[in-house]
Amino acid sequence: HTHTCTHSDQSTHCNHPPNNHPTILPPSPHLEPYVSSRFKTKHVCVFGIIVQQLNERRSQLMVPGGDLAPGEGDACIPVLLVQQPGVTRPPARSSGSEPPIGFGSGWDLYLPGGWAMAFWLPLVHSDAQVIGVDDRAQLLFEQGLFSFPTDFPDTEAGSAYLARVEQQAITTYQRRPASKRCNFAKLQSPFPFGPRWSFAHEATVPTTPANDDKPEQDRPLVLRSRRELLSLEQRFSGRDTGIDPRAFVTVSLRCRGKGCPDQFAQICSPPTDACKGKPLDARTRRLPLLGFVTSNGFSQARGCGFAIGLCTVGGLADLFDQQNKGKAGNRPGRTPLHTVSVHVCVRNAVSAFYREATLHVVAPPL
Question: Residue-wise over 86-95: b if at least 16 C-beta within 10 A, else e?
Fold first, then answer.
């Protein structure tokens, strides 16, 4: 980073950093707009060398394919490297295979504006694997991590994304002939096109489609800060911490049988008299709604259906207390969130049955 401010017309800026520079962060040219603007594409011809000259220097190497030694006229580009640890620990009480420790680890490379292609070509020629947005989302999915904006419905971008997906599903459904449409009223599927976060707070769920006109505008309240998650650990230990029971917490779902949860599938509390391994008919039994699935698919690392979703704190804490009633006296002052695991039922919008799944609370290390 010291080489980025050696030019004469940059010395004045280096001696007088901006007043709003964050004091808790290490100094970096990327945090200074006046330095970052110096390395835009329009300045490449002044401080750097064009690709044609670079190829001419490569042609003069004694050994073809060798590395070029930096010259006096070469530009020194500031970059940021951020390490991603990948999977740091598997969920507790797992009933099957999980991604190995370190899966998905690597480095994030941040560059000044206008220098993406200059770094892209050398990385590709050095056997770097190129992936797209969908591949990155799948990689995060296999790690059990959240993908933006799919798993962030509490943000403006996430809410707009879910509304767009729901509107597309409604449009596709209405374009089909009546004889080719799924009869959601007969299936008693109340949320066929998208989630209805407000119904997760209600004791009863409607038996007729509740969202066949327009997407929901309300955003869920999701606990993400460190302070809220620490209070949530105490709540799962049986202590009243004053957390809003209508708030949501991020969870992961692992199917205990065949099939995969669909996007916006319902996450429900199982009945106490349910038969293990047998699906429940949703047309004869109504289960309490806990939340909805936001990301779904078949996990290659786990070999089963897997999903990421949101569940209410109140319903999930009551279910955890119910399924761990005999162990409540042995619980410490706070229960680590990565050890919270319960059995739930999942129902797809086009299905008439509830199927069993194992739910884990997903939270970063505190």
Answer: bbeebbeeee
Residues of the chain with confidence (pLDDT) below 70:
1-50, 90-96, 202-217, 273-277, 326-334, 364-366
pLDDT digits (tens, 9 = 90+) for 106-132: 888 888 877 788 788 888 888 888 888
* Cβ–Cβ under 8 Å, residues 219 and 233: no
Spatial contact of 280 and 347, defined as CB atoms under 8 Å apart: no
DSSP string, 233-301: HHHHTT------TT-EEEEEEEESSSS-PPTT-EEEPPPTTPPTT-PEETTT--PPEEEEEEEEEEETT
Neighbour count for residue 261 (Cβ, 10 Å): 27
At 180 the three-state DSSP class reads helix
Nearest to 317 by CA among 263, 269, 261: 269
Measured distance CA(348)–CA(351) in Å, rounded: 5
Cis peptide before 149 (omega within 30 of 0): yes
172 phi-psi bin (left φ>0, alpha ψ -120 to 50, beta other): alpha
Cα-based distances in Å from 342 to 84, 112, 291, 360: 29, 46, 14, 7
Token code pair at residue 195: 């989630």
Instruction: Estimate to the nearest angstrom the gap between the alpha carbon of 305 and the chain centroid.
Output: 17
Q: What are phi and psi of 307, to 5 degrees?
A: -155, 155
Instruction: Kindly report the backbone phi and psi dihedral angles of residue 98, in degrees, each rounded to the nearest multiple of 5, phi listed first.
Output: -135, 160
Phi, psi of 243 (to 5 degrees): -70, 135
Q: Which residue has the tokens 């001419």?
A: 56
Task: Calculate the alpha carbon distances from 362 to 4, 84, 225, 344 in Å.
Answer: 41, 17, 13, 15
Non-local CB neighbours of 360 within 8 Å, separated by 6+ positions: 91, 92, 251, 252, 254, 338, 340, 341
User: What pLDDT does 332 receive?
Assistant: 54
Q: What mean pLDDT, rounded, does the chain reach?
A: 77
For residue 333, what pLDDT is reported? 60
In which residue are the tokens 């507790």 written?
92
End-to-end CA distance of the chain: 32
